[in-house]
Amino acid sequence: MNNFEFKNPTKIIFGKDNYARLSTEIPKGSKILLLFGGGSIKKNGIYEKVMKNLSGYEVEEFGGIPPNPEYSVLIQALKVIKEKNITYLLAVGGGSVIDGTKFLSSAALYEGNNPWEILTNKRPTLKGMPFGTVLTLPATGSEMNSGAVITRAEYKEKFPMGGAGLFPQFSILDPEVVYSIPERQLANGLADSFTHVLEQYMTYPVDAILQDRFAESIMLSIIEIAPRLMKNSKDYKTAANFMWNCTMALNGLIQKGVPNDWAIHVMGHELTALYGIDHARTLAILTESHYCYNIESKKEKLVQYAERIWGIKNGDDNSKAKTAIQKTTEFFHSIGIKTKLSEYIENYEGTGEEIEKRFEERGLSGIGEHGKLTPKDAKKIVTMAY
Ligand code: NZQ
Ligand code: ZN
Questions:
Q1: pLDDT tens profile 85-122
Q2: I need a surface site. Which of 19, 38, 72, 291 has the fewest CB within 10 A?
Q3: Does 198 lie in the same domain as 132?
Q4: Same domain membership, residue 165 and residue 50
């Protein structure tokens, strides 16, 4: 097992009807900016539940943070933070609203003139404006981690950021929010969380027995609940399991002491930046080609995954690995997610070259758990996913 440090300070408040906890968690006297997305919270009643419990505070609102939180929109929110002397941020939404809030938490205390630097200088944020979240969409794990991904449409860029100062102080996880989530986003949540586990697991063995079992238990749970969730998302037990699995898939725990890959995400963000494809779907597009391309360096873990997750006992290692990759693709299909780039866009030719060029321009030398995948490798992987 590799050396590691682990600290996750986010308080999780899980279960039905916990909105009253807002007033015990947010310090009295705070001047709150409530941040939300395109309005789903006004249709499903979450907005009322939140506002009812903020009556003792001064509250400003900022709505309209779009999926793949957009820099130019967030800059408008930053103005509100400064003009209204906001002291506390409250994100009510999915990964996009929470990520946008993390950017604002960092930008609110940023001392430079140009907050875009937070995305380009790659320096971790060690202190941000305090914030909490009310999660409305299980998927990203953003409610219990310190990372965010921000889009700037004018540059067609989507960059990650983060740092120890960007953990939410608390997150309210009410499984009942799942009832109003459309099918497309349910499938996205399943695919995103499943891939999060894969990115932290499908590398090479380091005798981290417990981490492997943690990761496998999350994958098995997601596979078990997926058909139930897609059939009936209004079942509390299913919704609760869906929600907690998504959080556990990316709250830092399973990645400690083991190698991490994240190449699927790095390439996937480019597909979203270029074509606006949903984050989770970009991952489903790239998973098969990434694992086929790297089958030799990932063979041992692919075989373990084949045996323990998909129960594949027959055949040699190569055939087990290949069958497991195929099973993963079938899992995406089973929840209605297409896995070829050409099924999402017409003009897909040249995408591999474009991504190779972008990575070269950025000086991105090597991705993946060995840091050895070059821009040329990325081109080949993306091209295999057409
Ligand atoms: O904007 P509103 O109207 O709220 O509608 C949203 C949005 O259209 C809707 N929605 C959310 N909760 C709902 C609901 N609709 C009905 N009922 C509810 N309860 O769902 C749509 C998608 O929301 P979004 O927040 O964009 O989805 P998701 O949570 O999948 O977040 C995706 C973003 O997170 C980033 C992705 O790159 C992408 O930008 N990620 C963040 C990560 C992190 N911080 O750790 C890791 C991930 O790998 C990922 O990169
Ligand atoms: Zn993801």
A1: 999 999 999 999 999 999 999 999 999 999 999 999 98
A2: 72
A3: no
A4: yes
Quick check: 134 and 90 in contact, CB under 8 A?
yes
Q: Shortest CA distance to 252 belongs to which of 378, 327, 145?
A: 145
Any domain includes 6: no
Residues having CB closer than 6 A to ligand 1 are: 37-41, 44, 67-68, 93-97, 99, 136-137, 139-142, 145, 147-149, 177, 180-181, 185, 188, 192, 250, 265, 279
Residues 6+ apart with CB under 8 A from 83: none
Both 228 and 339 in one domain: the answer is yes
**Cβ-count burial of 238 within 10 angstroms (0-12 exposed, 13-18 middle, 19+ buried)?**
buried
What pLDDT score was predicted for residue 122? 86
Q: pTM of this prediction?
A: 0.98
Are 221 and 340 members of one domain?
yes
Shared-domain flag, residues 208 and 325: yes
Name the residue with the closest Cα to ligand 1, atom 19.
136
* Residues by chain with Cβ below 5 Å of ion ligand 2: 192
Which atom in ligand 1 lies closest to the alpha carbon of residue 137?
12
For the chain, what is the domain count?
2
Distances (CA, A) of 70 to 53, 67, 146, 185, 309: 29, 8, 18, 19, 37
Angle at 262 between CA 3 and CA 167, to 5 degrees: 70
Q: Average the pLDDT over each of 131-140, 239-248, 287-296, 363-372 and give the range with the smallest value.
A: 363-372
Q: Residue 246: what pLDDT?
A: 98
- Closest atom, ligand 1, to C-alpha of 188: 30
Kindly state whether residues 93 and 149 are assigned to the same domain. yes
Band of pLDDT at residue 183, cut at 50, 70 and 90: very high
How far apart are the CA of 299 and the centre of ligand 1, in A? 33
Same domain, yes or no, for 110 and 208?
A: no
Pick the atom of ligand 1 nearest to 39's CA: 3
Q: Can you tell me the distance from the alpha carbon of 218 to that of 198, in angstroms, rounded to the nearest whole number?
A: 10
Q: What is the pLDDT of residues 313-322, one digit of tens each?
A: 999 999 999 9
DSSP 65: P
